[in-house]
Amino acid sequence: MPAKILIITGDAAESLEVLYPYQRLREEGYDVDVAAPTRKTLRFVVHDFEPGYDTYTEKPGYTWPADLAFSEVDPGQYAALVIPGGRAPEYLRNDPELRKILKAFFDADKPVAQICHGPLLTAAVDSLRGRRVTAYPALELDMQAAGAHFEDTETVVDGTLISARAWPDHPAWMREFLTVLRAKAPAS
């Protein structure tokens, strides 16, 4: 039976940061579930960089069904966790069911891949203190406030925590995550 990976997300997540790891991990032979606050069709967004803007722009993205509500997740059934970015982490960090899930993965030292604004979730459960991370560069002060050492580079590996800045860093992020994942939890 293939190992299972959990992606936690919600509305306004960055489309590419959910769907790229979802498809890449399935391609690798893993079963992948998407969990959200409730079982529903999620509405993702597309963030892009356009000349003349001081920050990224946001447009409607793809829709995707959540397989599970956070309250239905048994972290013990999953080998690893993926935390996409976008705006979703800004409100998801307030969900007590999600914080229980996050804590379980870190307590068990399971592989966790986070990208962009995803580290706002791991900061919310105090799992960044003393660790090296990257995130969307605008979060540097947030990462430092969470006790992390911020590095502005495409990917950072700190034990079983693999982080990246944003979707342009996908190749390096998934390459490093899969290296850790294959060692800790081969697909089959």
Which band does the percent of strand residues land in?
25-35%
* Average pLDDT: 97
Classify the oligomer: single chain
The CATH architecture: 3-Layer(aba) Sandwich
CATH superfamily: Class I glutamine amidotransferase (GATase) domain
Low-confidence stretches: none
Describe what this molecule looks like in 3D.
This protein has six helices and eleven strands. With 188 residues, it is an alpha/beta fold. It has a single domain, classed as Rossmann fold (3-Layer(aba) Sandwich). The strands form three sheets. The protein has a seven-stranded mixed sheet, with helices on both faces. The protein starts with a strand and ends with a helix.
Element layout with pairings:
Blueprint: E1 4-8, H1 15-27, E2 31-36, E3 41-48, E4 57-65, E5 68-69, E6 80-83, H2 88-92, H3 96-107, E7 112-115, H4 119-124, E8 132-133, H5 140-145, E9 149-150, E10 155-158, E11 161-164, H6 170-184
Parallel strand pairs: 1-2, 1-6, 2-5, 6-7, 7-11, 8-9
Antiparallel strand pairs: 3-4, 10-11
Summarize this entry quickly.
It contains 6 helices and 11 strands.
Descriptors:
single chain; 188 residues; alpha/beta; Rossmann fold; 7-stranded mixed β-sheet; two-stranded antiparallel ribbon; 6 helices; 11 strands; 30% helix; C56_PfpI-like; Peptidase; DJ-1/PfpI; Class_I_gatase-like
